[in-house]
């Protein structure tokens, strides 16, 4: 059994109601998720702040929670620069970020700047998790741990604050990629870092599917205050320019955003806002996360699919040339999926290519977390979207299904079965063949009797009731010529 210990001089901002959870390398993710779920059930909405850290030796994990009304911070002295950076972060978060699951990722949780952010965020957001990358040990255990923290199934929305002021960018992005951040494109991501790094950070592969990413560029003067807190600094003067003017200078704080399709369908950065702390504030009606999917600016989507008529159909066409030799061309035939993509591409302004999977399969699990066919193409980033494929519990962990087909219901209506007639009771015990045969014999007998009654050769005799009749003589029947 692992013993959970918090190292000094790190002090938690939560002073009471500690909850410790010990996990080994085999069930760390499952145990952490169970602890969080159990804590949510027992603690209620007022006790949902959680601190994650201290995985320095053997993957030890410490969970702490406290009621919002009882949160106390041991750091009463504010380091110069910390409060200003906190104000910048708070202006970006306040009234613009959903008050939902909040995760802070940093390389040094001992900094006063982080504790000041926790002080404000913990009083507003529903849940708070602090991940100290510097305390995590390399290995699959920590990767699964971060994946569990970021992707708790009970959360409907999440906000991620990434602190790059203390370094550790490569480790953070590696863990975020292992945690499959690309599966949550709607997550709000705020990155705090220094200038000249915004383009390289925002265009990193880990944010390839993120629609809401902001980079708060901190000037070197404020970063120097964080690095050397004992130095006396001159307070920055507020800006005298208006909000619509673009500021410049070493002390300008700039808020950048990631636009996935602004550069002719490719990622680029955009200037969101700029100001001098503690000068002008962000306008109240300011929206840092505009909708990026209404115009994708010619972005290329790779579509993969299998033949499943009438939903999707294609043929292969062989072509040969002297220079390129024999080539196979895939022709997407007219089908329901092709018509929908043609309509969507005009509405959302994107382009697309189509092709079948390399192995020609819909997708089965092949082990080691890998899938084949259509599912494998999406999993290994060889395609962006697939045509019709049946959902399953395993496939749902790789991609999300879109309900694009509207099926009309087909219902058969019939009368309620009635009681059989009592007049047919005598015939029910017999088989159908016997009933038909008896009916045929009865009808033939009636027909013969009817025909014979009209025959001209039928003997006629006037009979009187009570007297015996006799047959006529042979001559009277007109048969004498046969003698």
UniProtKB/TrEMBL annotation:
- Tell me the superkingdom of the source: Eukaryota
- Any one Pfam family here would be Lig_chan-Glu_bd
Give the subcellular location.
Cell membrane
Ionotropic glutamate receptor L-glutamate and glycine-binding domain boundaries: 328-380
User: Which Gene Ontology molecular function entries are recorded, alphabetically?
Assistant: ligand-gated monoatomic ion channel activity
- InterPro entries documented for this protein: Glu/Gly-bd, Insect_Ionotropic_Sensory_Rcpt
Signal peptide span: none
Instruction: Give a yes or no for keyword DNA-binding in this entry.
Output: no
What is the recorded name of this protein?
A: Ionotropic glutamate receptor L-glutamate and glycine-binding domain-containing protein
Q: What is the lineage of its organism?
A: Eukaryota, Metazoa, Ecdysozoa, Arthropoda, Crustacea
């Amino acid at each position: 059994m692992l013993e959970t210990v918090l190292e000094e001089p790190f002090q938690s901002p939560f002073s009471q109601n500690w909850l410790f959870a010990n996990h080994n390398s085999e069930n760390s993710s499952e145990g952490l998720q169970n602890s969080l779920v159990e804590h949510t059930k027992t603690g209620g909405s007022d006790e949902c702040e959680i601190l994650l850290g201290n995985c320095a030796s053997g993957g030890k994990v410490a969970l702490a929670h406290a009621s919002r009304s009882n949160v106390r911070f041991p750091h009463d002295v504010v380091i110069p620069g910390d409060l200003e950076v906190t104000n910048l972060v708070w202006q970006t978060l306040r009234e613009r970020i959903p008050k939902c699951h909040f995760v802070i990722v940093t390389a040094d949780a001992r900094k006063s700047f982080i504790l000041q952010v926790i002080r404000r965020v913990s009083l507003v957001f529903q849940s708070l998790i602090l991940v100290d990358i510097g305390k995590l040990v390399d290995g699959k255990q920590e990767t699964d741990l971060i994946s569990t923290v970021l992707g708790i199934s009970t959360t409907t929305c999440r906000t991620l604050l990434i602190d790059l002021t203390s370094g550790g960018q490569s480790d953070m992005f590696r863990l975020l990629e292992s945690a499959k951040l690309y599966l949550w494109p709607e997550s709000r991501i705020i990155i705090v870092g220094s200038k000249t790094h915004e383009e390289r950070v925002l265009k990193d592969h880990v944010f390839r599917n993120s629609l809401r990413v902001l980079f708060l560029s901190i000037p070197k003067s404020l970063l120097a205050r964080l690095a050397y807190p004992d130095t006396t600094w001159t307070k920055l003067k507020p800006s005298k320019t208006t909000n619509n003017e673009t500021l410049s200078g070493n002390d300008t704080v700039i808020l950048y955003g990631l636009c996935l399709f602004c550069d002719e369908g490719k990622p680029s950065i955009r200037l969101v806002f700029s100001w001098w702390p503690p000068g002008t504030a962000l306008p109240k009606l300011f929206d840092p996360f505009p909708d990026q999917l209404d115009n994708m600016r010619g972005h290329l989507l790779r579509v993969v699919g299998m033949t499943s008529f009438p939903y999707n159909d294609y043929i292969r066409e062989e072509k040969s040339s002297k220079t390129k030799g024999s080539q196979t061309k895939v022709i997407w035939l007219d089908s329901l999926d092709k018509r929908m993509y043609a309509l969507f591409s005009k509405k959302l302004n994107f382009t697309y290519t189509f092709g079948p999977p390399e192995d020609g399969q819909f997708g089965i699990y092949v082990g080691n977390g890998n899938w084949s066919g259509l599912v494998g193409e999406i999993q290994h980033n060889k395609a962006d979207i697939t045509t019709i494929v049946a959902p399953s519990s395993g496939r749902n962990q790789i991609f999300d299904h879109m309900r694009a087909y509207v099926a009309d219901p087909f219902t058969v209506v019939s009368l309620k079965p009635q009681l059989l007639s009592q007049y047919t009771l005598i015939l029910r015990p017999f088989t159908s063949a016997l009933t038909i045969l008896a009916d045929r014999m009865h009808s033939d007998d009636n027909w013969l009797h009817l025909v014979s009654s009209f025959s001209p050769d039928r003997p006629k005799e006037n009979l009187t009731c009570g007297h015996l009749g006799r047959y006529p003589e042979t001559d009277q029947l007109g048969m004498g010529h046969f003698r």
